[in-house]
Amino acid sequence: MTTDPDARVALIIEDDADVRQLLVMTLGMNGFVTIEAENGRQGVALVRDRQPDLVTLDLNLPDIDGVEVCRQIRPITDAYVIMITARQDEIDRLIGLEIGADDFVVKPFSPREVGARVNAMFRRPRTTVRSVSQPLLAPGGHTAEVSQPVAAPAVAAPEPVEGLLTHGPISIDTEGRIAMLDGVELPLTRIEFDLLATLVSGPRRVWQRETLLSRIWGDGWVNDQHLVEVHIRNLRKKLGEDTKAPRFIRTVRGVGYRMMPASSD
């Protein structure tokens, strides 16, 4: 079976056949070629072999859970990762683990919701572009099940802040997507990097939560302000912030966030 060499590839790691088929349909309608894995070990192997652009990852897999799968694939792929869970209260715990997932979806979900979240993620700049010109193979050399994509909707990418941004001991290479504190690179996720770069690009500005959601996650996210709060919390941890006496990110109560005055100490 031939595939479009320019098509984006999504790996669906899900043991529930009905959910897996729903994701195949949803992602196919959004322009993806899809590969399927029924368990975590098969999923890790497919990530290593095929280097997909997107991974949807169920939390409760029959062999190794989604958290461990995410930890194993993060060092070998820059794919966007959507973690899927059956419980709303799992999301805070998952984000708190800093496992490298880019977004979280709770079952039961609507195809429209998943499509919107995927398109919002792909509006953010990627660090690499991958070719998918070779056939898709599952572990052992067998051809993996693949769905043909339909045309993806055109999405205008936002204009990134170019060059080098600095704020006290923080320096950000927006083109290379590298953030450093006191000369040491910070291990930021994509969302954390985008949040920090946005805040530093306008350090005197108070960034409203709604503005951050629209700029980083995309339109239609005004009801998910909790996402901003959780990712800001994780960003502060990586900056070594004391929440009672913040050095870098100040909370403007009832509005949003802004950078503290720059200091080199």
TrEMBL record:
One of its GO terms (molecular function) is phosphorelay response regulator activity. Residues 162-261 bind DNA. Keywords: DNA-binding, Phosphoprotein, Transcription, Transcription regulation, Two-component regulatory system. The modification 4-aspartylphosphate is found at D58. SUPFAM superfamilies: C-terminal effector domain of the bipartite response regulators, CheY-like. CDD domains: trans_reg_C. Residues 9-122 form the Response regulatory domain. GO terms for biological process: regulation of DNA-templated transcription. InterPro entries: CheY-like_superfamily, OmpR/PhoB-type_DNA-bd, Sig_transdc_resp-reg_C-effctor, Sig_transdc_resp-reg_receiver, WalR-like, WH-like_DNA-bd_sf. PANTHER family: DNA-BINDING DUAL TRANSCRIPTIONAL REGULATOR OMPR, REGULATOR OF RPOS. This is DNA-binding response regulator. It comes from Arthrobacter agilis.
